Amino acid sequence: MSSQSVVLRRLASQLLTGPKASDPVAVARRLLAIQGQDPRGARLAIRVRSKGLSAKDVDRALSEDRSLLITWLNRGTLHLVASDDYPWLHALTAPTLATASARRLAQEGVTPDAADRGVAVIEGALADEGPLDRAQLRERIDKAGVRTQGQALVHLLLLASLRGVAVRGPMVGAQHAYVLCRDWLGEQARVDRDRALAELARRYLVGHAPADDRDLAKWSGLPLRDVRAGLAAIAPELHHREDGLLELASRAAGATAKTRGRSAGRRSTGGRSAAERSGLPAPRLMGAFDPLLLGWRSRAEFLEQSEPIVTVNGLFRPFALVRARAVATWGLAGGEVTLKPFAPLAEGDERALVKDAEGVVRFLWPAG
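The structure assignment produced for this chain is given below.
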């Protein structure tokens, strides 16, 4: 299997080619977890994988439907997930983050006793007062005499999340508020770890195949022994490619059928663009921390020589994707998109990106 085959299959798994999702939850379920510390970036990840939506639809799923939430999961980073995936993802990933959490709190001058008091304050405040944003929680923790300076507040909120006390739920104005998990989602059933590992392996491959065990370990933050146990549990469902990567057998068969169909229909283009005929996505503007750059051990296929520009000190900038390669970074100020190409763009590609920039603005600030 060629590198191009891997790229094409991953683009399809990521909903960047083929039919688009019709609602935000469908995107979250497909990708399983979308990195969420950049609120705009998480919403833009949904934009490029869906059709007919706006950022308001994401906010509605967070605030009214309670079908999406954000919390600390994989790799100790905030992720946007479907609410019904939260219990088992939290049960799998939270224990692996506890040691690092305790260490960071100690570095911030928060003792174990003080950390316990801080979490108790968070739990009590959310139980008594409903959704509260970060500033409001800081005020209550300060009154209890627990340190919040520096990064202490963030790590207290992280600890409350790891213990299953709080998640980020509704949008309250422009702020993403915290809620008491049991009030927002109801009491959670006990999670069977073996079944959860199998579900992790299966669902990861739905949104990221072809991939291997080390890709899954990198993405999830779990030890190799755990992800290998999950893959072993679904062994009858797996297709082993010639290059050593894995796919779900059912999806591999479907992808092969589609490839044959494209080959048979090459003479009839039906007005499709060159990118569409080749199986590549049309030029698109991707948000910060887009899942396309975070799903595997390597992102070289999509960034090539531009990686030091797009990823800097752990930050992932918004970028333009043309023929499955990053060709520019971009920014948004005053409702206007500004492109910074790495090299001169072809006229057609630039025109397509300008059109997509209009789509970004409509998505973030829909009329009416």
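Interim note for the steering committee: Residues 93 and 345 are 42 Å apart (CA to CA). The first strand starts at residue 34 and ends at 35.
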